[in-house]
Design brief:
The complex is a heterodimer of chains A (346) and B (340).
Chain A (H helix, E strand, L loop, with lengths): L2 H6 L4 H11 L2 E4 L2 E7 L3 E6 L5 H13 L3 E2 L2 E2 L7 E5 L6 H25 L2 H9 L1 H16 L2 E5 L3 H22 L5 E5 L5 H6 L16 H19 L3 E7 L11 H16 L4 H9 L6 H6 L2 E13 L5 E11 L1 E11 L2 E4 L2
Parallel strand pairs in A: 3-9, 3-10, 6-7, 6-8, 8-9
Antiparallel strand pairs in A: 1-2, 4-5, 10-11, 11-12, 12-13
Helix pairs in contact in A: 4-5, 4-6, 7-9, 10-11
Chain B lengths: L3 H4 L8 H9 L5 H6 L2 H10 L3 H16 L6 E2 H11 L2 E2 L4 H6 L4 E2 L3 E6 L5 H15 L3 E6 L6 H10 L14 H6 L1 E5 L3 H17 L8 E7 L2 H8 L5 H19 L3 E10 L5 E3 L11 E7 L6 E8 L5 H7 L21
Parallel strand pairs in B: 4-8, 4-10, 5-6, 5-7, 7-8
Antiparallel strand pairs in B: 2-3, 8-9, 10-11
Helix pairs in contact in B: 4-5, 8-9, 11-13, 12-13
The chains are: A alpha/beta (346), B alpha/beta (340).
InterPro entries (chain A): P-loop_NTPase (IPR027417), RecA_ATP-bd (IPR020588), XRCC2 (IPR030547)
GO molecular function (chain A): ATP binding; ATP-dependent DNA damage sensor activity; DNA binding
Protein name (chain A): DNA repair protein XRCC2-like
Chain lengths: 346, 340
C-alpha cells in the first residue's frame, strides 16, 4: 500500500456517520433523554433508597426489549436484549412483567383507538382481528421477557466471575436472539462497598510485595478493567445505580469523615454553588474508588421530593426530581412513577 | 477461596509449572485470578516454552470460574420461579395483607421499623401464629430480646379472626400448631450467623420433610444484634451488617423463605427519631413498613416506606394506609383506613 492510498481515505464523512450510527446508536430512554446517550457510555444513577432508581432501570429495560413494530402495531422499542446484573439481590420480576404488560396494552390500545377513526370497512377488519390480537400479546410478552437477561451476585467475587464469563454469554445470546445486547445494567454498584472495605488480602507468603493490600481498590480496578474489555467486543450502554449509603455519616465524629467533610465543602464552594446545593452534595458523598469515578461518563442524581402531582384520574403521585450532575445541566426534571412506569411531568 | 496449590489434586492440569507461571505474576489463588486480567496472562503464557500446557490450565481455570457465579437466567425463568416458588404467606391480618399485596412474599426480606412498643413484636408473633396455623411448614423465630411469648401465639391461634383464616384450620390441635414454631434465643450476631448457616445446610441436605420445611424466618430484632457492632470508625461492623443482609436474602431466594426482621428506632439529631439501622441498611430489605403508635393510644399505624413490587409505593407512603391494632382485645382487628 503506497502513501497515495493513505491520503485518499477509506470512507466519506457521510459513510463514517452512517457507520457510527449503526454501530454506536443513540439510545433514547426517558427519563434519561436530556443528554443523548449512546453505546459505550457509562451512566451512574445516584440517589437515596428508595428514589425510583431500579424503576428507571426497569423502564429502560422495557424500552429496550420491546420491538419497534409487531404485527403492525408500533411499540417504539429498541428491539435488543438487555443484561441486568443484580448486586442488591432484590430485583422483582413481577414489577417488570406488570410494567411490560402495561406498555404492550397501551400500545395496542392506542392502535385500536386510531383504528376507530379509520373507515368502517377497515374497522370491521380490526374487529375481526381483535381476538388473535390478544393472543399475539401473550406471544409478544414472552418474546420480550425472554430478552431480559438476568444474573444475581451476592459478593464481589461472584460479580467478577460473572463479568469474566459475560463475554461468552453475550455471544450466545446474540446467536439465539439475532440481536446483540446494547444495554448492560448494574443494580447497584456500591452494594459490596462495606464488605470489601473490611476485607484485606491474607498474605500467603512473607515479604509479599506484589500483592495489593487495598482490596476495595483492587476489586474496583478489576471490575472497571473487565467492563472495559467487554465494551471493546460488545459495544453497550452501561447504566449503574448507586445508592447513597453514607447519607448520615457526615455527623459522625470520626476524624476521617470530618476531614472528608471539609474537603468536600471546600470543593463545593470553589465550585460557586449555593448553600443548599452544598448540603445536597454532602448527602451524596462519593464512596466509590477513583477508578470507577473516572470510568463514569454521565452522572444523574435522583431524589424523592415532598411535592405531589395529580394525574388526570385524580391520583396523587409523589414527585421525584432528576438532576444531571455530569454533564451539569441547570434544570431539574420531575417525574412520577405510575403503573405504566416512569413519566416525566416537567 | 482456594489457593492454586490445593487444587492440583482435583485438577492435575494445574500442575507445578502452571503454579510457577502464575506465581511469577503474583497469583497464588483463584481470588487472585478473578482480580487479574486473564487474557493478558494468557498472552504472557504464549511466550513461555510450554505454552500449550499452560493454555490448557487456563481453560480449566475458566471452567472453574464459570462455576463460581450464579446461574444465567432470563425473564421467563424468573417469572416461572416467582409463579411456582415465591408465593405469599398471609400475615393473618386482612388489612395488613392488603397493604402488602397478599402478605409476606417468599424470597423477600420484609422489615418492620418502629419505635419501642409500636407493635413490631406483636406483628411478628401474629405472623408466626398465622403461618404455623396454616400447617404448610415451620416458622423459625430468632428472639434477641426475650420477647417471644408462646402464650401470645396461643392466644392468636385461638382468637385469630375467622374471616382471614381458614375455618378448617381451627380444628388443628394447638400443640401441633405450637410445634411448628421453633424459637431460638440469639444474643449476638455471630450466634445468628451460626443458626443461619446451620439452617442453610439443613435446607440443602433436606433433612426436613417437605411439610416441615421452614417457610418463614423471623428475626426480632435484627437491629439489636447489629447496633452493638456498628460503633467506631472501622468498616467491620457495617461489613457484618451487609453480609447478614445478603445471607438472609440468599436464604430467602434459594430456599423460598419469607424473612421478617424488625428494626428499632433511636434518637437522631434534633430529637428526631430514626431507624437504628440507617442509610446503609436501606438497600437491604425488599419491603419496609413503618409502625407507629400515638401516645397513650392503643392504635397502631402501619405505612409502607418501600415495596419492591408495588409500582406506586410512593403513593402508599404518602397516603398512609393505616392499620389499627387493638392490643387489649388480644387480636389484631383492623378497623379502617385513614388517608392523611
Amino acid at each position: 500500500m503506497g502513501p497515495q492510498s493513505w491520503i485518499v481515505g477509506d470512507e466519506s464523512a457521510k459513510e463514517v456517520l452512517d457507520r457510527v450510527f449503526m454501530e454506536r446508536p443513540f439510545l433514547l430512554l426517558p427519563p434519561l433523554h436530556r443528554v443523548p446517550l449512546r453505546v459505550g457510555n457509562v451512566v451512574e444513577l445516584v440517589g437515596p433508597s428508595p428514589s425510583a432508581k431500579t424503576q428507571i432501570l426497569i423502564q429502560a429495560a422495557i424500552s429496550c426489549i420491546l420491538p419497534k413494530e409487531w404485527n403492525g402495531v408500533q411499540y417504539g422499542g429498541l428491539d435488543h436484549p438487555v443484561m441486568f446484573i443484580d448486586l442488591d439481590c432484590r430485583f422483582d420480576i413481577l414489577r417488570l412483567s406488570e410494567m411490560l404488560k402495561h406498555r404492550i396494552m397501551e400500545a395496542t390500545g392506542s392502535m385500536k383507538k386510531r383504528g376507530g377513526e379509520l373507515k368502517n370497512a377497515e374497522k370491521s377488519i380490526s374487529d375481526r382481528t381483535r381476538k388473535p390480537d390478544i393472543a399475539f400479546d401473550e406471544k409478544l410478552f414472552i418474546f420480550c421477557i425472554n430478552r431480559f437477561l438476568y444474573v444475581r451476585c451476592s459478593n464481589s467475587f461472584e460479580f467478577l466471575a460473572t463479568l469474566k464469563l459475560l463475554h461468552h454469554r453475550l455471544w450466545k445470546e446474540k446467536e439465539t436472539h439475532g440481536n446483540s445486547v446494547h444495554l448492560l445494567m448494574i443494580d447497584s454498584i456500591g452494594a459490596f462497598h462495606w464488605v470489601d472495605r473490611a476485607s484485606t488480602f491474607l498474605p500467603l507468603r512473607d515479604n509479599d510485595r506484589c500483592r495489593k493490600s487495598l482490596f476495595l481498590q483492587g476489586v474496583s480496578e478489576a471490575v472497571v478493567q473487565e467492563i472495559k474489555k467487554l465494551l471493546r467486543v460488545h459495544p453497550m450502554l452501561i447504566i449503574a445505580t448507586k445508592s447513597t449509603i453514607l447519607g448520615d455519616r457526615y455527623s459522625s465524629t470520626s476524624s476521617e469523615v470530618k476531614w472528608n467533610f471539609m474537603k468536600h465543602n471546600f470543593q463545593d464552594t470553589s465550585d460557586t454553588r449555593n448553600v443548599t446545593r452544598n448540603k445536597l452534595q454532602l448527602l451524596h458523598r462519593e464512596y466509590m474508588p477513583s477508578v470507577w469515578q473516572s470510568f463514569v461518563t454521565h452522572r444523574i442524581l435522583v431524589q424523592p421530593s415532598d411535592d405531589h402531582f395529580a394525574t388526570s384520574n385524580h391520583q396523587n403521585h409523589s414527585l421525584h426530581v432528576l438532576e444531571w450532575l455530569l454533564p451539569s445541566l441547570s434544570f431539574l426534571d420531575k417525574f412520577i412513577v405510575t403503573d405504566s412506569g416512569v413519566s416525566v411531568v416537567s | 477461596m482456594a489457593p492454586l496449590k490445593s487444587m492440583e489434586q482435583e485438577y492435575p492440569i494445574i500442575d507445578a509449572a502452571f503454579q510457577k507461571f502464575c506465581a511469577s505474576h503474583g497469583i497464588f489463588s483463584v481470588e487472585d485470578l478473578l482480580m487479574c486480567d486473564i487474557d493478558a496472562l494468557m498472552a504472557f503464557a504464549d511466550k513461555e516454552p510450554k505454552s500449550e500446557k499452560l493454555k490448557q490450565g487456563f481453560t480449566q481455570i475458566l471452567t472453574i470460574i464459570d462455576g463460581l457465579h450464579q446461574p444465567w437466567l432470563n425473564g421467563l425463568d424468573l417469572l416461572e420461579d416467582a409463579k411456582w416458588n415465591k408465593h405469599v404467606l398471609s400475615t393473618g391480618c386482612k388489612r395488613m395483607d392488603e397493604l402488602l399485596q397478599g402478605g409476606l412474599r417468599k424470597g423477600q426480606l420484609t422489615e418492620l421499623v418502629g419505635p419501642s412498643s409500636s407493635g413490631k413484636t406483636q406483628v411478628c408473633l401474629q405472623v408466626a401464629s398465622s403461618v404455623a396455623k396454616m400447617q404448610i411448614g415451620s416458622v423459625l423465630y430468632l428472639d434477641t430480646g426475650n420477647s417471644f411469648s408462646p402464650r401470645r401465639i396461643a392466644q392468636f391461634v385461638h382468637k385469630s379472626s375467622g374471616s382471614v383464616l381458614n375455618y378448617q384450620a381451627d380444628h388443628i390441635p394447638l400443640q401441633k400448631v405450637m410445634n411448628s414454631v421453633l424459637c431460638h434465643s440469639v444474643f449476638d450476631i455471630f450466634a445468628m450467623f451460626d443458626i443461619l448457616h446451620q439452617l442453610e445446610i439443613n435446607m440443602k441436605s433436606q433433612i426436613h420433610k417437605a411439610d416441615h420445611q421452614v417457610q418463614l424466618l423471623i428475626v426480632d430484632s435484627i437491629s439489636s444484634l447489629i447496633t452493638p457492632i456498628l460503633g467506631g470508625s472501622g468498616p467491620q461492623g457495617h461489613a457484618l451488617m451487609i453480609s447478614a443482609g445478603f445471607l438472609l436474602k440468599k436464604l430467602a431466594h434459594e430456599h423460598n423463605l419469607a424473612v421478617l426482621v424488625t428494626n428499632h428506632m433511636v434518637g437522631g439529631e434534633g430529637g428526631i427519631t430514626k431507624p437504628a439501622l440507617g442509610e446503609s441498611w436501606k438497600s437491604v430489605p425488599h419491603v419496609r413498613l413503618l409502625l407507629s403508635r400515638d401516645h397513650g393510644s392503643n392504635i397502631c399505624n402501619v405505612s409502607v416506606l418501600k415495596h419492591s413490587s408495588i409500582l406506586k409505593y410512593s403513593t402508599f407512603k404518602r397516603n398512609y394506609n393505616i392499620l389499627l391494632l387493638h392490643f387489649p382485645k388480644m387480636n389484631m382487628l383492623l378497623v379502617g383506613k385513614h388517608p392523611l
